[in-house]
Each structure stands twice: as structure tokens, then as C-alpha cells.
Specification:
The protein has 28 helices and 5 strands. By secondary structure, it is mainly alpha-helical. Strands 2-1-3 form a 3-stranded antiparallel beta sheet. It has a two-stranded antiparallel ribbon with strand order 4-5. A hairpin with a 2-residue loop joins strand 1 and strand 2. Helix 13 packs antiparallel against helix 20.
């Protein structure tokens, strides 16, 4: 390119009228004009060889206008959100003030009554005094009820209520309407609380007794305060992201123009950068002022004027990753490999895997297989966390995890290696004691003790061993078990999908529970459990439960969102339930008819699942995509990885063929084959997890927001209902 002096002007087009940018900067811009401003660069002298320069500045103008538009839109959203939060906070303060005044008034009235009932100097004839003052016990209520004060306080903030027009209608001095604090039913506990509030509102609206009750209690006020505080935290976080967006784009424009100057050997960046600095996303200070306002409000109302406490909420410090975690991961990995090698040698020389030691495989295999499958799933989750972090997939936003307490990939590997080291160590001790002549009843209690230790550690209330993660896991499991009675979040159905791949683990839990609860570990009669009718019936329940929970989540999402895709997804899990039931029946009744039923139901369910995996969950197999049969946006640069992943998922999805083939192998080989197939399904699920979250991150297919909007407690309703 020739060293040509490029003379250009950047014009701001407002409502079809062009104005020079430098002259515009000196004048006062009106708000209506700023809302429609568009920047356009024009070269004063354009020669044929300067077409590339014109195209460059046209593209730069497009990016500048795009950044300005996005910034202005988000800025107005945050300002509107701030006004709503200020209004909600004022309502909360009025409520607290009214209730505090009412409590003081009631306390003073009680004191005055006590003074009248029990005077300081009284007659020696208590009976006469009581008879004379018997009418003093009838306490007269004030003319205005607490409801009137609360409603008046809220109506001063512009809140209209259902049946507010009938407020003047009184029944025994009480209004025929009430106010409800709207608590979203995101969890079963809140759902029950909401139902209770509705019943309480009916009681207030239709009182059967003369006594008055507090229809706004302290617990509701605390819950509303917590929601408003969380909303302010999210608002501040969003403002911080928008501020970073402004600074990053300013840096981007600076570097792009410096690169242009370097390539063209000109100094054209200074003039254009002046225009960029005068543009709205740089010149506007509304975001900074709103951040300062949020800090002052939060300090005053939620942190007891403690700014240090405020910053802990608004700007939580990210925990620094310690190299000690990496050290312990390596240490426990080495211990696991060593112990597993020792166990394999001991088992081989003692003949524990021979046909004569059937009791060992029947009793020990379910317990330790359960631990091994759980550890493998933790390892796959750690790999997922590492890959999501490496590819910058924002899994914390998608799952709505707290960045300060969310599990990191090193932590997941530490838990996994520590878990497996303890399990294999218990296996070695169990084998050594059994080989040393100890009774099987005593030795076989070791796996049960290990299981109890892990359960106790999972529910331990002490702040040790990742308590936030443990309690988050328990909350998610509770939400899954309560489906469809609670709102479905992304992390809920993601965990439910993990459970559909851990049906063998759940079956092993059934065997372990029966083995220890029935006392079979003392009598060594392990066949008692499997021969029982209840055990066989529970096998169907356990195999159906993960699919049922997932289907109920789909039903709840369809009810909430009215999206027919959720009904189609529900059909996928119903087909999986039918196929699982057919395979269980075929295992006990291996007839030709049931084999045909297994083939038909399994083929239908497999095709259904493969279609949903590739098209819906991963967003692939798009024939119109610019990446053949993939999707337009890809995070991984090597496209062949996606094609290999499609083939791998297809192969691992047809592992059910083993149930139909019924290979003629020994007991030990059969157990190892079952464990290998269960492990392959866990690996397939971990492989599926990466692409599922990649698609969610790129296309937001689940209709979830990256920056969540916290629901607010006070809801505005029209007066006509």
C-alpha cells in the first residue's frame, strides 16, 4: 500500500441529518438525538487505490455503532432495574417501619394494661379489687388496624392491590383485602411457603374470628430483604461487566487503529480515537454513578454502614488456587496406583477371582463397584471442568454457581483421588484380613463402615471438606426427588441426566443396602436378597426412577414455558423407561417374544436418544451450516473432533446389545463385563457433558440467561385484579 495521507471526517448521523463530529462534541447533545446517533467516516479525497481504506473504516464504523447500541441498551436496562430496586427497597423500609411502630404501640398498650390491672398500691381485699376492675381486662383495639398502615405505606410507593377499590368496605372494623409478599416457588420449601401464604391470605380476607393476626410476619420480611439484597448484588455485578465491556472495547479500537497506522505508515488513529472517546460508551458516566449509588445503598441498609462488609458482597475475592492441591492430587494418585497393584497381586495369588470364591464376588463386587463408578464420574466431571475452563465456557454462570465456592477442576481431581485411595485401601485391608483367617462376617463389615463414613461426611454440618459443594449437591438431589413440584433450573436437569447414566450404581446401592440390612454379611447367604420378590420389584423402580424424574422435569418445564420441545423430550425418557423395563424382564424371562420386544423398544429408544443428543443437545447435524453437518459456531478449532465425537457417542449408545447377545462367560468375567459397560456409559456421559454445555454457552438453547435476574418480592397488580 502506498504511503498516502488519508484525510477523513467522522460524521454523526442523527435522524437523517449529518453533523460533523468535532462540532457536535462542542454542542450539548440532547437525549433524543443520542438515542439515534450513528457514526460514519467519509474520506475527503478517495482514489481508486484507496478502496481498501474505505472498506476498513466502514467496517470500523459498523463496530463502533454496534458497541454504542449495545452499551446504550444495557445501560438503560440497568438504570431501569436500579429504579425498580430502589422502589422495592423503599417498600421494604416502609413495611419494617410500620411493623416496628405497631410493635412498640402494642408493647406500650400492654404495659399500660398491666399497670392498671396490677397497680403499685392495692387494697388488702383482692376479691373486691378484681370485681371492681373486672372490666379492665377487655382491651379495646385501635381504630386503625396494622393492615391499614401497611397498605397506606405501600400505596405511597405506587403499589395497587387486588380489590383495593373495596378497601373502604369494612367488616367489624377490618378491611376485606390483604397484601401478599410474592416469594417465587423455586424450591419445594418456597413452594410450600407460597401455598401457606395463599391460605393465610384467604383467612385474612375472610376472618372467622374477632382476633387480629399478623399477615406480614418477620420471616416474610427477612426473606424479602434477602431477595432485594441479592438483586442489588446482581445489579452491581452487571454494572461491573458493562464497565469492563466499555474499557475492553476502547482498548480494542486503540489497538486496531495502531495496527492500521503501522500497516499504512500513517498517523490516522488520533483523529478517529477522538471520536471514539466522545462516543456514548466512553463518555457516559451513568454506569459509574449507578455503581457508586448501589455501594452507598448497600452499605447503609444491608451492611450496617460497614464498607468492608459491603465489598465482600459486591466484589467477592476469588480464592487463589493452591499448589498444595496439585501436590495432594499427585500424592493420592500415586497411592491409588500402588494400592491397586497390590490388590491385584493379592487377589491373584489368593485365588479370590476363581469360581470357588463365588461369595467374594457376590458380596464385595456391588459395594466396591458402586464406589468405583462414583469415583469415575467425579474424574469425568473434573475433566469437564478443566476443558470448560480451557475453552472459556462460562459454566459458573450457566449453572448459577457462586464463583467463590464453586468447585474447581483441581478440587474435583483431589476428591476423586482421595476417594479412590480410601476405597482401594479398604479393599486391600479387606482382602488381607480375609486371607489371614478372619471370619467373613467380621471382615465384610468393612465396606459397610466405609459407606457410613462417606455418608456422614456428605451430610456433615462442619465447614470442612467443601461444605458449600456438598450442600449444593444435596439441594440439587432434593429438587430432583421433588420433581415436578419445584421449578427446574439448569443444574437440576443436568444432574438428573447424570443419574440416567448411573443406573448400575443405583442397582449396586440396592444390593448393598439389602446385603447389610438383611444381615447377609453375617450369614454369608447372599442369595436371599436376589431371590426375594421385593428385590426384583425394586429393580424396576430403581431402573425407572432417573428417567421418571427427568420426564417430570420436562413436564414441569413445558408447564412453565409452554414449549412443545419439552414434551418431545419427555417422550424420549418414556421410551427409555419402556426399553429398560423390557431388558429387565428379558433377564428373568429369556424367551423369543421378550427378545423381540427388547430389540424393538431399544432400537426406538436409541434412535430417539441419538437424535436428541446430536440435534437438540449438541446442536449438530445441521445441513445448512457453514461447517458441514455441524453448527455455525464451534469452540474447538479442529472440526474432526466433532465428527469423531459423533461416532463415539453412537457406538457407546448401543452398549445395550450386550443384554441381548447374552455372552456365555463365567461369573467373574460377567461381573467385569457389567462393570466395563457401566464405566463406558459414565465416560459417554462425561463426553456428552462437554458438548452440551458448549452448545448452551454458544446458543443458549435452554432459554437461560448468563446474568440472572433475581426475582423481587413485591409485585405490582392492577386494581381491577
Amino acid at each position: 500500500m502506498k504511503n498516502t495521507e488519508y484525510d477523513f471526517q467522522v460524521k454523526k448521523i442523527i435522524g437523517g441529518e449529518q453533523r460533523n463530529a468535532e462540532a457536535e462534541a462542542e454542542a450539548d447533545n440532547e437525549n433524543e438525538e443520542e438515542a439515534n446517533e450513528i457514526y460514519q467516516t467519509e474520506l475527503v479525497q478517495l482514489f481508486p487505490e484507496e478502496d481498501e481504506v474505505k472498506a476498513f473504516f466502514q467496517r470500523l464504523d459498523e463496530e463502533l455503532n454496534k458497541v454504542n447500541l449495545f452499551y446504550r441498551t444495557k445501560e438503560s436496562e440497568f438504570i431501569e432495574r436500579g429504579e425498580v430496586l430502589n422502589k422495592q427497597l423503599q417498600i421494604l423500609l416502609d413495611l419494617k417501619k410500620v411493623l416496628l411502630d405497631r410493635r412498640r404501640k402494642n408493647l406500650s398498650s400492654v404495659k399500660s394494661i398491666n399497670a392498671e390491672i396490677f397497680p403499685s398500691s392495692y387494697s388488702s381485699s383482692p376479691r373486691s379489687d378484681c370485681s371492681e376492675n373486672s372490666d379492665e381486662f377487655n382491651v379495646t383495639t385501635p381504630e386503625t388496624s396494622p393492615r391499614d398502615d401497611v397498605i397506606a405505606a405501600l400505596e405511597r410507593n405506587g403499589i395497587n392491590f387486588v380489590n383495593s377499590a373495596t378497601r373502604s368496605k369494612m367488616k367489624n372494623g377490618k378491611p376485606k383485602m390483604a397484601m401478599r409478599i410474592d416469594i417465587p416457588a423455586t424450591t419445594p420449601a418456597r413452594a410450600i411457603s407460597t401455598l401457606t401464604s395463599m391460605l393465610w391470605e384467604d383467612l385474612v380476607n375472610n376472618p372467622k374470628k374477632e382476633g387480629q393476626g399478623d399477615f406480614i410476619n418477620k420471616k416474610k420480611i427477612q426473606c424479602a430483604e434477602k431477595m432485594i439484597r441479592g438483586a442489588f448484588v446482581e445489579l452491581y455485578r452487571g454494572l461491573g461487566l458493562l464497565k469492563n465491556y466499555s474499557s475492553l472495547n476502547m482498548l480494542a479500537f486503540t489497538k486496531i487503529l495502531k495496527k492500521f497506522d503501522k500497516v499504512s505508515s500513517q498517523q490516522a488513529s488520533a483523529s478517529y480515537l477522538k471520536v471514539v472517546k466522545r462516543s456514548h460508551f466512553i463518555s457516559s458516566d451513568k454506569v459509574v454513578r449507578l455503581m457508586d449509588e448501589v455501594e452507598s445503598i448497600f452499605t447503609k441498609h444491608f451492611a450496617n454502614n460497614d464498607r468492608k462488609k459491603t465489598m465482600k458482597f459486591l466484589r467477592p475475592q476469588q480464592p487463589k488456587s493452591s499448589h498444595m492441591i496439585t501436590f495432594f492430587v499427585g500424592l493420592f494418585t500415586g497411592c491409588f496406583v500402588t494400592l491397586f497393584s497390590v490388590y491385584a497381586l493379592l487377589a491373584h495369588f489368593s485365588g479370590m477371582f476363581s469360581a470357588t470364591e463365588a461369595a467374594y464376588m457376590e458380596t464385595v463386587y456391588p459395594v466396591f463397584s458402586m464406589f468405583a463408578l462414583l469415583s469415575l464420574h467425579l474424574f469425568m466431571y473434573g475433566c469437564n471442568l478443566f476443558l470448560w475452563k480451557s475453552t472459556r465456557i462460562n459454566y459458573n454462570f450457566i449453572f448459577e454457581f457462586s464463583p467463590t465456592t464453586a468447585l474447581k477442576y483441581r478440587d474435583a481431581f483431589l476428591i476423586c483421588t482421595c476417594f479412590m485411595t480410601a476405597v482401594v485401601g479398604a479393599m486391600v485391608i479387606h482382602l488381607l484380613l480375609r486371607s489371614s483367617g478372619f471370619s467373613a462376617g467380621q471382615v465384610d463389615a468393612i465396606p459397610g463402615i466405609l459407606l457410613l463414613i462417606f455418608i456422614a461426611l456428605l451430610v456433615c454440618p462442619l465447614n470442612i471438606f467443601y461444605r458449600p459443594t456438598r450442600y449444593c449437591f444435596l439441594r440439587i438431589v432434593r429438587n430432583i426427588l421433588c420433581s415436578p413440584f419445584c421449578k427446574v433450573l439448569m443444574v437440576d436437569f443436568f444432574m438428573a441426566d447424570q443419574l440416567t447414566s448411573q443406573i448400575p450404581l443405583l442397582r449396586h446401592m440396592e444390593s448393598t443396602a439389602c446385603y447389610f440390612l438383611a444381615g447377609s454379611f453375617r450369614t454369608q447367604q447372599f442369595e436371599i436378597c436376589k431371590s426375594g420378590k421385593l428385590y426384583r420389584q425394586l429393580a424396576y423402580v430403581i431402573s425407572f426412577s432417573p428417567y421418571y424424574w427427568r420426564a417430570m422435569q420436562c413436564a414441569r418445564r413445558w408447564f412453565d414455558e409452554c414449549d412443545k420441545n419439552h414434551l418431545a423430550n419427555l417422550g424420549k425418557y418414556v421410551s427409555a423407561m419402556v426399553a429398560a423395563g423390557a431388558r429387565l424382564t428379558y433377564a428373568t424371562q429369556p424367551t423369543q417374544l421378550w427378545m423381540i420386544i427388547v430389540l424393538v423398544t431399544s432400537v426406538v429408544a436409541t434412535f430417539y436418544q441419538l437424535y436428541w443428543d446430536f440435534v437438540k443437545d449438541w446442536g449438530l447435524l445441521n445441513p445448512k451450516s457453514r461447517n458441514p453437518w455441524l453448527r455455525d459456531d464451534l469452540i474447538l478449532k479442529n472440526k474432526s473432533i466433532y465428527y469423531l465425537s459423533i461416532v463415539l457417542n453412537l457406538v457407546l449408545r448401543v452398549a445395550w446389545v450386550e443384554a441381548v447377545m447374552r455372552f456365555n462367560v463365567g461369573m467373574v468375567e460377567s461381573r467385569l463385563l457389567d462393570f466395563s459397560l457401566a464405566s463406558l456409559e459414565v465416560i459417554r456421559r462425561g463426553h456428552w457433558n462437554f458438548y452440551r454445555l458448549e452448545n448452551e454457552h454458544l446458543n443458549n438453547v435452554g432459554k437461560f440467561r448468563a446474568v440472572k435476574t433475581v426475582p423481587l418480592p413485591f409485585r405490582e397488580t392492577d386494581s381491577d385484579g
